[in-house]
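quick one, two chains, predict together pls
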Amino acid sequence: MQREHNLTLSNIIRHGDPTASPVCTGANGAISFADIVAGSGFGDDAFDFNDRSVLLATPDQLTSAIALIKLDGVARRVVLCLPDVSVRDVQAIAATAEVDVVVRTEDTSNVDLPGLRAVLARPIADATRSCPTGTRRTEWVLLTSGTSGTPKLVLHDLGSLIGAIKPSAKALPSTVWATFYDIRRYGGLQIFLRALLGGHSMILSHRDEPIGEHLIRLAQGGVSHISGTPSHWRRLLMSGLAGNIAPAYVRLSGEIADQSVLDALQAAFPKAGVSHAYASTEAGVGFNVIDGRAGFPAAMADAANDDVAMTIHDGSLRLRSSRTASRYLGETQPAIVGPDGFVDTGDLVELRGDRYHFVGRRGGIINVGGQKVHPEEIEAVINGHPAVHMSLVQGRRSPITGALVVADVVLKQQRRDASENPDALAEDILDRCRAALATYKVPTRLHFVAQLDVSASGKLVRSHV
Amino acid sequence: MTVRSTILSEIYKIAVAQKRDISTLHDDLPLMDSGFDSLCFAVLVAHLEDDLGLDPFSSAEEIEFPVTLGDFIALYENAART
């Protein structure tokens, strides 16, 4: 007998409440989840993705959502590629993930993989046609930032991704989910899956869409549950347009939620429940804090819980749950899960009174508006400048984006002696960074220093923000 | 330099460094229409902390997030007075 409840996105949608007809809305169109399941998501309907490792590389999120629903249960592996990943990094990702088919649109600009089969995704699934379905356990690969700049590939499956999503008694049929995140990032994907599992509609964000237009779409769609990073939310508060929406549930994740942003959101949305969640692509969803206060109750650590075990070890938060990723793809990558089953998140916490507060990340990783920045990547670019001896890239606290990137630079002796114009030299080094790095990685200040502290083990001494 | 002129000059400097087209600056200009994104504002707030020694976003007990350029300047002018 065929098992009816094999966990695939298509099966979840099929088993939803037949009286509800949830819709997935993008910036350029909308389609019901039922029509996605019934129809074809690809230009070549007959193409069989069975056993394939698929790179999903469409600029638009709705097209990705449709293709993802169609591929889950059929493909062996789906890599959720983001449109801002460089052509070179896409090539490295494809090699590591053993990609043999690319799903793209004509607007896909970051894929140059000659020799690989490409299948066009449909911008709107065609309900008059159908394509093969399946019930296999598809591997989902999410990208996360890596030390060298090339993203790391984090392996999940649908089971680990939806482990934190519980049927909610509070979710009404009128619930409409939205997120400021891209759904191909872990934080956004959680919201997409929440909508899908709850049988609710979902409004997707769109890259480069002005916030005013996004808010009009959110208001028209009747958004009730919405998530974003503290930086996303500060941007909304500073737009003066927060009054256009009236969500019942406001969720923050991906960065440290400070008390001022929590208070400002509660003031802007007095009727909303404001909560902040902790999650990482590797460790999965850890916990949700609903008391409106920054940090989390110390009692949550080391408390017995069916779903998640939390402990603080050596100042950093460690999590053990069924929601963690299984591993990184690639032979040289370290294990995600330690021998005791815990994932060391690298997020450092400090006990103040009866609560733990996040204070930064181990290894100097800087979180700029939810995007993790590895200082080594930027230092490598700066150190490539002919005048530079060595550099140290660090975070600086920002009340707007959580942190910013700043750099201390030691010049080579002969350049120090040459009494050059320091401003022009700093600008030249920064130009090099602007050419090689994403904008949020370019240092916002560059200081020339005489020396940098090096530890006994020969490593640069990094503080954390 | 006054607080106002420091803010305006920093905005122009950041616009040049980040190669951004910005709108004509006036007090009623909504920040979201200025041509600056969150990252630009974060840089602006950091540079103003260096220049003026003020960070009203972090130091105030409770602040109302500024919506127009006039609100933004007033936030700093008030912080400079206290």
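Chain B has one domain: 3-81.
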